[in-house]
Design brief:
Length: 486
């Protein structure tokens, strides 16, 4: 029953009630004035509503990409760019070629390290210390380790110019990187099964948003550029390109060498699964006129430090208006995660990437932590965060292609996740099991009920990812409009 408020209870009643001795003429004037005041008030309300709707339309849609390092955040961002600013994306091929060249050099660094380790392990401890190279790694003697032939050692030596162009390539990406101070931007190599490999100073390239701002500025801001001429794009062959081309045949020979493959196998160094793997395309990517394809660019690896913002406009469909979007890409390493929080209260959606192929790997920054476990804990802390209670969180169970390859090669999920038990070690069963785990956490820990949106993804696959991102864009937009209507 509606609650009635008596005139006596209402402290404002004496201001709004008509005067006691009001004449008929005065009453008519008062009613006219009240009518006019009501009309003005309604017009103001209407205007406020219109301005709110306008503001809402003008307010951009914001999406934050989260997940541990190497989970695929920047690769997802590249897919957004490919969908929404394709020309600008392609205009940055010169920079991506440099990144790819660095990725190749890094792969060879790893091969050289593995060879040095094998050589040291296969050298009998009885050999005179004078005959051991000064920089030989300190590894236990292993007579079963394959021996490096003089031809292989010669090949390795012929490829040493690769290490000399590394600095030039890094400086091309970020001129402020100096050999001495550059290491602040560069972090140890990841995804390596042996934690101690980290100590060896092999560096993965990383770029701060400061450097990205200058090098990839057109791309991040979705601007277009007309010229596709090689000179304009900076794709004219330069010194590192000539060196890589000159080393191409030797690189292919070394990479295909059965002894080298055996050494890599023995050290469980699966370069194919490392980010930025281009060794199966050496002939193509070392050509003097090589221009990275879209696929090459999404596979190129550069670690993110700081936060990168990418802006684009999605044109309206039907009678809906065009909307501006902002996608934020952050660094995923533990040291970068404090920078995530300031973004939490203003996002329309979060895409969380969990690389489910990483069940047998450890974190680069803490080799005692399993990568999948880290993703699960991160997921739990995100879905339970009260600041994000109303935010749509979309889960990408990523790197499905690598998961499938690992399972096919005989690596058992149950060895790392004991609760998986004796279920089948195939993709369908393992992926469905992991999805259920993430869904359960979402259900148990969300502060209030909300939908669970999850996709199995391989974000290096441009075609399938674009379909998923179209769905995601539509879903985010719908949720955004629903919030407005409610
Ligand atoms: N095969 C395969 N590779 C992937 C997939 N997703 C990402 N990668 C590769 O993994 C590497 C790391 O991906 P990034 O997108 O750079 O990872 P990130 O989450 O941005 O990492 P940080 O910047 O360190 O936080 C890149 O070389 C990608 O090409 C995938 O689904 N399958
Ligand atoms: Mg990144």
């Amino acid at each position: 029953m509606p609650v009635r408020i008596s005139m006596l209870d209402d402290p404002f009643s004496e201001f709004v009630s008509p005067p006691a001795n009001e004449t008929a003429a005065q009453r008519e004037v008062r009613l006219r004035e009240e009518e006019e005041a009501k009309r003005v008030s309604e017009a103001i309300d209407e205007e406020i509503d219109r301005q709110r709707a306008e503001q809402r339309r003008e307010k951009c849609v914001k999406v934050l990409l989260l997940g541990q390092s190497e989970s695929g955040k920047s690769t997802t961002l590249k897919n957004f760019q490919l969908m929404n600013s394709r020309k600008a994306f392609r205009a940055e091929r010169a920079q991506w070629r440099t990144v790819i060249q660095l990725n190749i050099v890094r792969s060879f660094r790893l091969i050289f390290e593995a060879m040095a380790e094998a050589q040291a392990a296969s050298t009998s401890p009885n050999v005179s210390p004078r005959l051991r190279p000064a920089d030989a790694p300190d590894v236990p003697y292993n007579p079963d380790m394959p021996r490096l032939s003089p031809e292989l050692l010669l090949l390795k030596m012929k490829l040493s110019p690769l290490l000399q162009i590394e600095d030039v390539l890094r400086r091309k990406l970020d001129p402020e990187v100096s050999s001495v101070f550059g290491s602040a931007l560069l972090t140890s190599v990841t995804n390596i099964p042996f934690p101690d490999r980290q100590k060896k100073g092999m560096k993965e390239i990383a770029l701060s948003s400061r450097a990205l701002g200058t090098k990839f500025s057109r791309l991040w801001n979705g601007e277009d550029r007309r010229s596709s001429d090689m000179r304009d794009e900076g794709l004219e062959p330069d010194e590192p390109t000539h060196v890589l081309q000159a080393c191409s045949e030797d690189m292919i020979r070394l990479w295909k060498d059965p002894i080298v493959r055996e050494i890599l196998d023995r050290q469980k160094l699966r370069l194919e699964e490392l980010p930025g793997f281009f060794l199966d395309s050496l002939e193509r990517v070392t050509d003097l006129r090589y221009m990275p394809t879209d696929e090459d660019i999404v596979r190129a690896r550069i670690k993110t430090l700081g936060v990168t913002e990418y802006r684009f406009t999605v044109s309206g469909v039907g009678n809906t208006v065009a909307r501006d979007w902002r996608v934020y890409d952050v660094g995923g390493q533990r040291s970068c995660r404090a920078a995530w929080v300031p973004f939490f209260d203003d996002m329309d959606a979060i895409i969380f990437l969990a690389p489910i192929s990483c069940f047998d790997q450890v974190l680069e920054e803490d080799p005692t932590v399993n990568r999948l476990e880290d993703s699960v804990l991160l997921w739990k802390s995100l879905v339970s965060n009260p600041l994000l209670a109303k935010t749509n969180i979309i889960l990408f169970l990523n790197k499905c292609d690598i998961l499938e390859r690992k399972l096919t090669s005989g690596i058992k999920l149950a060895k790392y996740i004991v609760s998986y038990g004796d279920r089948p070690n195939d993709f369908e069963s393992t992926a469905a099991y992991l999805r259920r785990k993430f869904a359960q956490i979402h259900k148990d820990h969300s502060p209030q009920k909300r939908g669970f949106y999850a996709h199995f993804t391989s974000v290096v696959n441009i075609e399938s990812t674009s379909k998923i991102l179209v769905d995601v864009q539509e879903m985010v937009l719908r949720a955004n409009l629903r919030d407005f209507v409610l």
